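Appendix B, Record 12. Input sequence as logged:
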Amino acid sequence: MPDAMAVEVTIYLNESDQWHHRPLHIQILNYLHTENVYAAIVLHAVAGFLGRQRVKASHLVDAGGQLPVIIVFIDTDEHVNRVLPTLKEMAAHRLIVREQVVLEQGNLD
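Logged structural output:
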């Protein structure tokens, strides 16, 4: 059987980003769960930068809620097309990357 294709989306945020006065990364994760997206994860970085900003690291006292948070989710192209407009609204002005991927193991059933 040939390897199955899927779409992987990565969203780059700051930990201080908000949506309706709540952490944006949690709001997005809850939205993806409600929409029955196959799999999603939130990764909290220990260091990094967004855009052309300076590097922030968790050991810096002045990181001040600016550490990167990354959301990665995977599903079919059709399902991603359905949820992406809302995600673009929620994470306006943030980087969203969409990639076609090959499922080496498992499936989206």
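The beta strands are 4-14, 18-19, 22-23, 39-44, 47-48, 56-57, 68-75, 96-103.
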